[in-house]
């Protein structure tokens, strides 16, 4: 069973480690996805910027080409217009010149022709008149006419040359104007080049900067692409690793479920065997503990099971020897015969036994309460016999040791699918009244759980119930209860318990699948009040009433046990508060253990004998089914 639990714990540790790795990977995945999304967003922004720059570059290129084209078109139009204007002017000038020359020539020719015709007419007239004139006059006239004709010819030639020179001047002027226009066109070209060059340079610089930025964006896009690819690969690896971890986790969960099932089966079988063992030992068992006293003790001897029959241990005590003078005798004393008494118990602890030795036996019944049975363990005996030391000693009493075992066990049981919680009540029965040893006028700061307990006990209504969570809390609880418990001085003891104290523990199981709770068992740890004979305690007044109430409740406890022994149809649980509250642990399949504590002092022989007789009565009783 412990190996299975250990193996289960190892598997749970492996599972916790895997869950830690899975959690670590799962916590990294959102960061990686966020980083991946950021890189994707950044890449998208870069692509968008790149597209914007590319579009802007294309637009600038288009604008540049458009402007150049417009300028070229304007230049071509201007050149065409200028050439056309020049050609038109040249043609116009040529046409004007030709027309002027033609007109001049024609006019001069016409004038010449007219004059020639006039001269011819004159010659004809003169020829016709020759007959009338003499040769001399004719010669003179002819000579004069020739001179006039030559003069006219020279004049006409001079005029003609002057007109030609004027035309040449006009042509020279037109040529000069053409050169001026050509120079103007060249200047315009230079001006256009001068004005467009900064724009072209700016456009070229912008294009170079954009190309560089484009290269940078492309490099960044490539880098982001590589990072994105790397992250995708890393994400895929992490996802594969996560899937593998989930598969390992599923496998471990399956193995843990199998272990849990095996542990549940083993636990069920263990409970069955443990209960069978307890039933074989007896549902009512009586242990005896002898308080160590060094001087003035009566003789006693213990025989182990191997020396007796019926699996019982035997305690034999001898009445202390004493001498008493006979009433009618003169002076010779008579020695009283020694009586020996034998009692059988399930277990006897001698003076050398410690609380740890006792708890080895008690722990089995504590386990029975955790297994779902009602258990009652109470200490019985005279005042000063060690009852409270056995039950409530702060370091190793049955209460702190039982609670330590229960805390450890419920932690282990919680691994089987249910949660367990412990709730406790601590009260005393003084006379026939119940007093709470936890709650009082001053708030006791020992309940660390502020929630109301989910259970109630109708037998102890009004008694505060608290959740038990730690040994430190139990120690504080015991110290507080010890201060509140009713004690008084008697002839038998300076500090005598005048009440029965009951520490009642309710074991509650919670299902992890629901909020329902179930009380599966109850452990009652009872420190009975000191059992004293009136002749020994010699009490009076209030102490007498207390002693009578104590003895009455103890007698009622004996009556209940006797009724159970005889299997009576009626068990008088209601005869006292003590038996009524303990009724669930005194019948049916409950487990009950009584510790009879005795002192071996000679002065306590009769009280010890009375306690042993009461315990022997209980030891011969069987529980009614």
Automatic annotation (TrEMBL):
<keyword id="KW-0493">Microtubule</keyword>
<feature type="domain" description="Kinesin motor">
    <location>
        <begin position="283"/>
        <end position="621"/>
    </location>
</feature>
<dbReference type="GO" id="GO:0003777">
    <property type="term" value="F:microtubule motor activity"/>
</dbReference>
<keyword id="KW-0505">Motor protein</keyword>
<dbReference type="InterPro" id="IPR001752">
    <property type="entry name" value="Kinesin_motor_dom"/>
</dbReference>
<keyword id="KW-0547">Nucleotide-binding</keyword>
<comment type="similarity">
    <text>Belongs to the TRAFAC class myosin-kinesin ATPase superfamily. Kinesin family. KIN-14 subfamily.</text>
</comment>
<dbReference type="GO" id="GO:0008017">
    <property type="term" value="F:microtubule binding"/>
</dbReference>
<keyword id="KW-0175">Coiled coil</keyword>
<dbReference type="InterPro" id="IPR027640">
    <property type="entry name" value="Kinesin-like_fam"/>
</dbReference>
<dbReference type="Pfam" id="PF00225">
    <property type="entry name" value="Kinesin"/>
</dbReference>
<feature type="binding site">
    <location>
        <begin position="381"/>
        <end position="388"/>
    </location>
    <ligand>
        <name>ATP</name>
    </ligand>
</feature>
<dbReference type="GO" id="GO:0005524">
    <property type="term" value="F:ATP binding"/>
</dbReference>
<feature type="coiled-coil region">
    <location>
        <begin position="157"/>
        <end position="262"/>
    </location>
</feature>
<dbReference type="GO" id="GO:0007018">
    <property type="term" value="P:microtubule-based movement"/>
</dbReference>
<feature type="coiled-coil region">
    <location>
        <begin position="43"/>
        <end position="70"/>
    </location>
</feature>
<protein>
    <recommendedName>
        <fullName>Kinesin-like protein</fullName>
    </recommendedName>
</protein>
<dbReference type="InterPro" id="IPR019821">
    <property type="entry name" value="Kinesin_motor_CS"/>
</dbReference>
<dbReference type="InterPro" id="IPR036961">
    <property type="entry name" value="Kinesin_motor_dom_sf"/>
</dbReference>
<keyword id="KW-0067">ATP-binding</keyword>
<dbReference type="InterPro" id="IPR027417">
    <property type="entry name" value="P-loop_NTPase"/>
</dbReference>
<dbReference type="GO" id="GO:0005874">
    <property type="term" value="C:microtubule"/>
</dbReference>
């Amino acid at each position: 069973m412990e190996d299975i639990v250990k193996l289960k714990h190892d598997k749970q540790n492996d599972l916790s480690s895997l869950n830690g790795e899975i959690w670590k990977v799962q916590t990294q995945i959102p960061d990686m996805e966020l980083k991946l999304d950021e890189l994707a967003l950044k890449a998208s922004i870069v692509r968008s910027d790149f597209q914007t720059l590319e579009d802007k570059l294309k637009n600038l290129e288009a604008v540049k080409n458009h402007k150049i084209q417009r300028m070229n078109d304007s230049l071509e139009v201007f050149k065409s217009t200028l050439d056309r204007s020049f050609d038109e002017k040249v043609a116009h000038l040529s046409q004007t010149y030709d027309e002027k020359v033609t007109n001049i020539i024609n006019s001069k020719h016409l004038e010449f022709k007219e004059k020639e015709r006039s001269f011819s007419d004159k010659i004809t007239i003169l020829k016709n008149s020759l007959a009338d004139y003499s040769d001399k006059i004719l010669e003179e006239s002819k000579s004069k006419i020739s001179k006039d004709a030559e003069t006219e010819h020279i004049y006409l030639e001079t005029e003609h040359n002057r007109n030609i020179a004027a035309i040449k001047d006009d042509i020279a002027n037109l040529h000069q104007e053409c050169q001026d226009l050509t120079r103007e066109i060249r200047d315009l070209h230079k001006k256009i080049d001068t004005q467009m060059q900064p724009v072209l340079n700016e456009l070229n610089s912008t294009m170079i900067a954009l190309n560089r930025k484009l290269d940078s964006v492309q490099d960044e896009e490539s880098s982001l692409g590589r990072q994105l690819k790397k992250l995708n690969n890393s994400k895929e690896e992490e996802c594969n690793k996560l899937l593998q971890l989930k598969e390992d986790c599923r496998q471990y969960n399956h193995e843990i479920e199998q272990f849990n099932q095996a542990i549940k089966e083993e636990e069920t079988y263990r409970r069955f065997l443990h209960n069978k063992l307890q039933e074989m030992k007896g549902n009512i068992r009586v242990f005896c503990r002898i308080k160590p006293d060094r001087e003035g003790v009566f003789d006693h001897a213990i025989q182990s099971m191997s020396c007796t029959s019926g699996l019982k241990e035997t305690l034999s005590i001898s009445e202390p020897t004493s001498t008493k003078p006979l009433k009618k005798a003169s002076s010779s004393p008579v020695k009283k015969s020694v009586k020996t008494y034998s009692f059988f118990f399930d277990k006897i602890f001698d003076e050398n036994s410690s609380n740890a030795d006792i708890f080895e036996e008690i722990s089995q019944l504590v386990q029975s309460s955790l297994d779902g049975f009602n258990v009652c363990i109470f200490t019985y005996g005279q005042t000063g016999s060690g009852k409270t030391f056995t039950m409530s000693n702060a370091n190793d009493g049955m209460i702190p040791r039982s609670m330590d075992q229960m805390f450890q066990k419920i932690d282990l049981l919680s691994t089987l699918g249910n949660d367990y919680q412990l709730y406790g009540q601590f009260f005393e029965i003084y006379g026939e009244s119940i007093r709470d040893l936890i709650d009082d006028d001053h708030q006791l700061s020992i309940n660390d759980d502020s929630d109301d307990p989910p259970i109630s006990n109708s037998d102890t209504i009004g008694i505060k119930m608290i959740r038990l969570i730690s040994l430190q809390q139990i120690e504080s609880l015991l110290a507080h209860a010890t201060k509140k418990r009713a004690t008084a001085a008697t002839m038998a003891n300076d500090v005598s318990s005048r009440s029965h104290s009951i520490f009642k523990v309710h074991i509650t199981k919670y299902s992890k699948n629901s909020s329902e709770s179930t009380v599966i068992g109850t452990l009652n740890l009872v420190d009975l009040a000191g059992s004293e004979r009136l002749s020994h305690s010699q009490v009076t007044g209030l102490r007498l009433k207390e002693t009578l109430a104590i003895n009455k409740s103890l007698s009622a406890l004996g009556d209940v046990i006797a009724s159970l022994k005889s299997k009576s149809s009626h068990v008088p649980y209601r005869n006292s508060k003590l038996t009524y509250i303990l009724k669930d642990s005194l019948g049916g399949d409950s487990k009950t253990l009584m510790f009879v504590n005795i002192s071996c002092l000679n002065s306590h022989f009769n009280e010890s004998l009375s306690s042993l007789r009461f315990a022997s009565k209980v030891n011969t009783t069987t529980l009614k089914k």
